[in-house]
Amino acid sequence: MSQAAAPAGPASLPARPRAGLGQRLLAEGRRLLAAGKPAEALPLLRTAATAMGEPAAWIALAEALLALGEPQAALEACAGASEADEGSLPLLLARARALGRLGRAREALGDAASAVLLAPRDEAARILLGQALLASDRHDEAISVLGEVWREAPEEAGGALRLADAMMRAGRHDATAELLAFLLDGLLLPEASRRLALGLRAQNALLRGQPQAALEAANAGLAALGHDATLHSIAAHALIKLGQRPQARGHLMQAHRLAPDDAYIGHLAASFDDPAQAPERAAAAYVTHLFDGYAAGFEASLLGLGYRAPGLILRALEALLPGLGAGLPPGRKLGDVLDLGCGTGLIGVVLHDLVAGRLKGVDLSPAMLEEARLKGVYTSLEHAEIDVALARDGTQYEAVIAADVFCYLGALDGTLAAITARLAPGGLLLFTVEASDDAAEWTLTDSGRYRHSEAGLRRALAAAGLVPLLLRREALRLEADAALAGFLVAAQAAGAPP
Amino acid sequence: MNLVAAPFRMAMDALAAGRTEAALPLLRACLDSGEEAALAQLNLGMALGDLGRLAEAGPHLRAARQAMPYMAEPRFRLGQIAVQQQRWEEARAGFEGALAVEPDHVMSLAGLATLAEARGDVEEAMLLVAQALLLAPDDHGLTLMRARLRGSAAEVVALLRAGLGGMEAVRLAARLVEAADLREEAAQAPLEWHWQAAIGLAELAAGATEAGIATLRLATILSDESPALLALLGLHLADQRRHGEAEPLLAEAIQAQPGDVQLRSQHGITLLRLHRLAEARLVLEAAVADFGALPSLLCNLALTLCGQGLQEEALAVSEQAGNTVLALGCRLGIQPYHPRLGSGQALHATASLLGARLPQVAAPPHAPGFAPDRRLRVGFLSASFGRHPVGWLTLAGIEALPREAIEVVCYSLKPMPDALARRFQARADLWRELPRLEDGALAETIRADQPDILVDLGGHGEGGRVTALAHRPAPVQVKWVGAQSATTGVPGLDWMLTDAWQTPPGSEAHYTESLLRMPDGYVCYTPPPWAPPVGVLPALARGHVTFGCFNNLAKITPDVLSAWGAILAALPRARLVLRTHGLGDAATRARFIARAHGAGLPVERLELHGPSPHEALLEGYNDIDVALDPFPYAGGLTACEALWMGVPLVAMAGSSFSGRHAVSHLNNLGLGHWVAEDGPGYVARAVAAAHEIPALAGLRAGMRARMAASPLMDAPRFGANLAAALRDAWRARCLQAQSGAGMTM
Question: Which pLDDT belongs to residue B369?
Fold first, then answer.
């Protein structure tokens, strides 16, 4: 509640002009600028510059405007700086940055060169000069300048990354690859630099005409760092080059989801399905985009876990075998269980509480099997092809699981027959496959994976003597905006369960 | 000639020079010596009042009134203090008493006008102001008041152009004057703080937060850091949750304006948000001493005590705050932590008291287009769409709602600029940022969008607006995550979204809402991408078990400490690691150690950590073998984080909603056997776990995969189930409307 006649607030205006006010506005503006709050510094610096005529405020104002992505306004602020400041290092640097952002490479080069002339050891000046040289297609000189900065402090990842970027743009792809390998293998990189380095490596491979290597580099980055808009975007470009448009689409949509404000990715995503717009065409523009648009992209990176098969299979088992349970009091448990294509053991982790008998895993990858072994939930693990493993196994299993395995097989008849032979009477087969709505029983996708139709699955199950108990559409995992459609299938062998 | 005693004159000089504090001992000396005693009483009362020490001021002013019954000033001052203490009847008596002895006392007329205005009696206020202006035609405060009562922009502009009217004129200008006109005035006088401050306030009111803060900062510097501006900037920074920046500004402003109760209260809350609990407590206790037992102060003090883990004291203080909606809402935020009164039944009683004080609005009549199967527009109301427990527990589920069946509207009460917030925005079909509005107006704004279902994600917690749902903004209303610790008691909230673990059959009596049970868990967890990998079981190398609890101190009750004491007593080598904000506060930490010692915990086997960044906090779990969940308020997000980091938790099943979060999460992971039903069971479970080190190692290795495969993280499954649950609630409403069986659930 306010008081009417009681004195409140400053009683009267201070006299003008006030000593030191411009200085205080400038100091506070600079503090906010250094704290990464250019928008909040702006009105202070603008008032100091325009209303107080504080000479040094114009340059700080230009810096704030640059930070806010307004190079034209920054350039105008530079013009407000006093005669006395003309030719000073801060003004040259601010103007060179503004001009560079505006694409006025020749003028930017002039200011950057003057700055280096004025302060030959100033790092910011030399980096600006290097970038201005790059923008003017004077690659060798740029590499020389940035190389010098890097050699003075080789432990600083920023310098090395800039040099790598310069060499890549200069077309020196081998040298770029070498420098990046040195960086990635040798230094303990902060995460932001690591993302940048992996992105550059993938981009370099793409420019080198090695889309497969680019894809691998991008995938390695995604595996190591989780989802990242730029890495997804490079993977999409590589896949387009490899002729795998459906997979490229997934990566592109993922990138778009992670960086919804990125106009370039947004454009690509929107035009992807339009044959008139060839995404290949954009690859060159992407070089610039990669480096400039990076900061915004990596912050938005989020883990998008969504691998559902283990959970789907667990709950199918619970639904089909009422009373199955791990809790207290203990419910009914499963006898022997075979996990085909067990990978790192995700199914085993989910099921082992429910298994009273043996839990055996089979996979082709020794590395995956090692991961599965560390989980300590399998009775045995076998390194083998599925069909080979089935042929030499004599056990009668109560349940056989094949999660995300049949997508590597077209015709299922042989494998299903072999599984039937390994099922105890009334035993269960549970699996997931990618769904096809095609008339054909199965189709091979561009990614080299197979999709199966419902009719095809029903026919193959019947041919193997298995009775489908459950055949339901389910999202198998999240890919970009959409979920990957599949089937969850449970089928039973003939005979009464034990 | 020296008629006035020397100490009194010195005191007057000190007061005139603004050295109020220095005048106090001089005036007290006058009281002792008896020289100018009556005037000294009056001036001492006024000085104490100016210093915000209102409770101390009262007796001196009353003594002065007694000694000088024909003087208006003591009576007026007593009225003024009563205004600050929000004791309206006393205030009125003070002003009227002053006018009885001095009918032309302008300030008292103004005081009565202010009271009339606060009552909403504009006519009476206008009459009083007109009368006062006849006596004091040049008084700017009165002119300003008249402008406010008339809503006259021109009068405010005239005052401000003359540099008059202070902050109140600025506030009024921000409300009444067009933005373009304010800018025009500012361009004419770019160094006048008034215009900048008014522009800043107008920007903030329009939701342009960043610009508003920036402009207020400019105004503050232009005003030479005047306390009124420091206060304004501090309050708005605090409102933006920028407590670290706000705190020094508030502290400095209070030096000059100790009688401003809002500042003092916000300073306490800001210190609380900074986890400087001991200081917060001092500030709030001092404010209660000065301003009396104002409900808002008591509520903030109760929250602070609760944060220190003093559940009994906190609840007692919150009960002193009375039974207003505000006080009961605050109590509902504290009571769930209480060892005994945190039960589902006791919380239901408090919530029902609250509900009885809210409007009872019937559901809006059956609108055309009620069709059970059509696409539904579902609104979510929250101040926490972003990096916040609400965000981590709802994002995946909302993202996974089927677009063809559900249109998502997000009603954001506070912008949050982070990656999680952007994902909410990306999923929302309609994104609305709501300004600060009264409950009725808030409901009106939401109703304009005609949502079919409104889901509240704030409850009675900080920033929550669940009481607005009593005004029935949507035909179907649901409570979900967000201070979802018990029933809300809010009439018009039809459903509580829950699951069979959170609210097993028989819980119905503890809820004013009907229970809308999800088939698995009631939330879907999104893990942070910066979570480090799960390490190997520390006990393998150490040979003994390390327990941990990363919940806040509010959850650590005496019973919890006793249980932990029993566990550590049974395991002489085991250690317990606690990690939470409150332990970074030295005084709070010392108090906690004393409490732990008193409860029989071997403090040499405790390891206490203060706040750490989220990634480091998660990394902290790599040092823990088994987590100990608190009770009766269980870990929610904290339980999810422990599990995601591979750490199983021993939990106790409570009876309230907040007492069963871990029960739900553990059961959804197939780990129901980690839930104990009573204290001895809890201790036994923890001790047994410590003897199963190989089994713990295996469980840990597979925990993350187990969790990823569980319903707790299966977003497509959760999204489909959430859509089905909302559809069920909608069908029930359609059926009810059809049968004409009345509009209440």
Answer: 63
| Buried b or exposed e, range A268-291, using 16+ CB within 10 angstroms | bbeebeeeeeebeebbeebbebbb
Which residues have a Cβ under 8 Å from the Cβ of B358 and sit 6 or more positions away?
Answer: B325, B467, B470, B490, B491
Q: Is B650 in contact with B672 (CB distance < 8 Å)? A: no
What is the model's pTM? 0.77
pLDDT digits (tens, 9 = 90+) for B370-419: 788 899 999 999 999 998 889 989 998 998 899 899 999 999 998 887 77
Of B226, B423, B709, the CB nearest to A311: B709
* Rounded Cα distance, B441 and B211, in Å: 25
**A79: pLDDT strictly greater than 60:** yes
Quote the CATH superfamily of domain B275-356. Answer: Tetratricopeptide repeat domain (1.25.40.10)
pLDDT score at B401: 93
Q: Which of B190, B213, B228 lies at the smallest CB-CB distance from A51?
A: B190
Within-domain flag for A345: yes
* Residues B546 and B575: beta-carbon distance below 8 Å: yes
Tell me if A5 and B167 make a contact (CB, 8 A cut-off).
no
The ipTM (two decimal places) reads: 0.72
Nearest by CB to residue A40, choosing from B145, B213, B716, is B213
Nearest to B423 among A43, A44, A302 (CB): A302
Residues of B in contact with A474 (CB under 8 A): 716
CB A434 within 8 Å of CB A407: yes
> Which of A219-223, A433-437, B725-729 tops mean pLDDT?
B725-729
What tokens were used for B183?
A: 């800018």
Domain count, chain A: 1
CA gap B362, B352 in Å, rounded: 17
Minimum-distance CB partner of A4 among B114, B670, B717: B114
Mark yes or no for CB contact A314/B709 under 8 Å.
yes
> What single string gives the DSSP state of each residue in B512-571?
SSEEEEESS-S------TTPPPP---HHHHHSS-EEEE-S-GGG--HHHHHHHHHHHHH-
Nearest CA in chain B to A484: B716
Please tell me the distance in Å from A221's CA to the nearest CA on chain B: 14
Per the CB < 8 Å rule, is B221 touching A306? no
A313, A359, A375, best to mutate vs chain B, most B CBs in 10 Å: A375
Chain A positions touching B110 (Cβ under 8 A) are 3-6
Specify if A346 maps to a domain: yes
- Domain boundaries of chain B, sorted by first residue: 275-356, 376-518, 538-713
Dihedral sign computed on CA atoms, order A166, A168, A170, A172: positive
At residue B264, the pLDDT reads 95
In a domain, A128, yes or no: no
User: Taking a contact as any Cβ pair under 8 Å apart, which residues of chain A between 171 and 210 contact chain B?
Assistant: none
Distance from CA of B651 to the nearest CA of A (A): 15
User: For B376-518, which CATH class?
Assistant: alpha beta
Distance from CA of A261 to the nearest CA of B (A): 10
- Specify if A37 maps to a domain: no
**Residue B525 and residue B715 in contact, taking contact as beta carbons nearer than 8 Å:** no
Residue-wise pLDDT tens digits, B653-676: 999 999 999 999 999 998 999 999
Parent domain of A314 = 309-493
Could you tell me the fold of the domain covering B538-713? Rossmann fold (3.40.50)
Spatial neighbors of B6 by CB under 8 A, at least 6 apart, are none
To the nearest whole angstrom, how far is the Cα of B373 from the nearest Cα of chain A? 22
Q: Which CATH number belongs to the domain containing residue A428 in this structure? A: 3.40.50.150
Q: Given an 8 Å threshold on Cβ–Cβ distance, is B529 in contact with A227? A: yes
Same fold, B376-518 and B538-713: yes
Reported as a single tens digit per residue, the pLDDT across B152-191 is: 999 999 999 988 888 889 999 999 999 899 999 999 988 8
Chain B residue numbers touching A314 (CB-CB < 8 A): 709
